[in-house]
């Protein structure tokens, strides 16, 4: 809490709302007189690193400040940023404009000065600070759930691109009909992504979104593409008709994509999580596409013989192992708590 008012007044208000940084039990919070803060010098238009570090050390020890001048508010923002913090600044007066402008997220009150609202990135129209926790929760939900489902879409992009290039180079028919891809995409991406994107998620955002998603999606997509292509070419090499070879490829794709969905749905909490049962439901629907004659005919699938099922099973098991290894070894170095 930083304010231009008297430190005793600021400390009394902070005590009333129990803010002020470090936990101090029920004892009154004491405001720090900002006139005692070290001055932050500018070198070539940028804050001096040494003076920022001295200010940052004081900020680690105190949480309530009074008699803070506008330029000191901005220096406090810079000092916190120098420690790697993402800084949000809330204010309503003209003297808050400098700090609001330089903060990572400037938040102006709805009844604040026009200059303050002009430089802020967010304006609380109702003027209620209690609105912010809900805003933060909404932002965390969007970012964490987006990261959870982004891997599903990028995995499909990876294996689809790999298969497209492979069939052109090998001059063979494409392994799938459009209805095959509709079935697999609906059960492994479309329907589950809808549910995975909706629930609350309080996981804090961590920089590195794209890197984490790519290390999760690209290895999975490569394994799926290679597995589908192997099963399809081996089935054709054994003399199976194209429709049966495509059925083998569809079965392999569905099984491997469901495993990737299972990774995105973790943690399962030993089967007690609704995400676990979501994966089971999608797998059951996929099995129904083969078990129900009408659905099997609609999706142009065939009942496979023992040899074809054995081929699909071998490719699927090997694919599961490789995807799991990639997820644990490659993805573990950059994994976000939301998909750990």
TrEMBL record:
Domain of life: Bacteria
Chain segments carrying region Disordered: 1-25
Cation-transporting P-type ATPase C-terminal domain segment(s): 173-326
Compartments, as annotated in UniProt: Membrane
Catalysed reactions, as listed in the record: ATP + H2O = ADP + phosphate + H(+)
Keyword tags: Membrane, Transmembrane, Transmembrane helix
InterPro entries: ATPase_P-typ_cation-transptr_C (IPR006068), ATPase_P-typ_TM_dom_sf (IPR023298), HAD-like_sf (IPR036412), HAD_sf (IPR023214), P_typ_ATPase (IPR001757)
Transmembrane segments: 149-174, 180-201, 213-233, 245-264, 276-295, 307-327
Full protein name: Cation-transporting P-type ATPase C-terminal domain-containing protein
Organism of provenance: Luteimicrobium album
């Amino acid at each position: 809490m930083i304010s231009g008012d008297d430190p005793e007044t600021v400390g009394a208000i902070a005590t009333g709302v129990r803010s002020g940084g470090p936990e101090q039990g029920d004892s009154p919070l004491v405001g720090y007189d900002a006139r005692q803060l070290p001055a932050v010098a500018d070198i070539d238009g940028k804050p001096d690193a040494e003076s920022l570090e001295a200010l940052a050390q004081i900020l680690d020890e105190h949480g309530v400040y009074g008699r803070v001048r506008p330029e000191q508010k901005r220096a406090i923002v810079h000092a916190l940023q120098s420690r790697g913090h993402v800084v949000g600044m809330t204010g309503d007066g003209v003297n808050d404009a400098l700090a609001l402008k330089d903060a990572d997220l400037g938040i102006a009150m709805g009844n604040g000065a026009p200059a303050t609202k002009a430089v802020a990135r967010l304006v609380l129209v109702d003027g209620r600070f209690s609105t912010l926790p809900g805003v933060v929760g909404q932002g965390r939900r969007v970012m964490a759930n987006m990261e959870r489902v982004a891997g599903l879409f990028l995995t499909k992009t990876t294996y689809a691109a790999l298969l497209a290039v492979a069939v052109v180079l090998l001059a063979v028919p494409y392994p799938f009909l459009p209805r095959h891809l509709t079935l697999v995409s609906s059960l492994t991406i479309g329907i589950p992504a809808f549910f995975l994107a909706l629930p609350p998620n309080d996981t804090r955002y961590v920089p590195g979104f794209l890197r984490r998603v790519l290390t999760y999606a690209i290895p999975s997509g490569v394994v799926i593409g290679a597995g589908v292509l192997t099963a399809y070419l081996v089935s054709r090499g054994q003399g199976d008709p194209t429709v049966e070879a495509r059925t083998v490829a569809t079965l392999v794709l569905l099984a491997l994509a469901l495993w990737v969905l299972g990774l995105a749905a973790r943690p399962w909490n030993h089967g007690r999580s609704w995400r676990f049962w979501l994966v089971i439901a999608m797998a059951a629907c996929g099995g129904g596409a083969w078990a129900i004659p009408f659905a099997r005919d609609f999706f142009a699938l065939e009942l496979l013989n023992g040899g074809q099922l054995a081929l699909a099973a071998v490719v699927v098991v090997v694919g599961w192992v490789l995807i799991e290894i990639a997820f644990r070894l490659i993805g573990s170095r950059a994994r976000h708590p939301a998909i750990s």
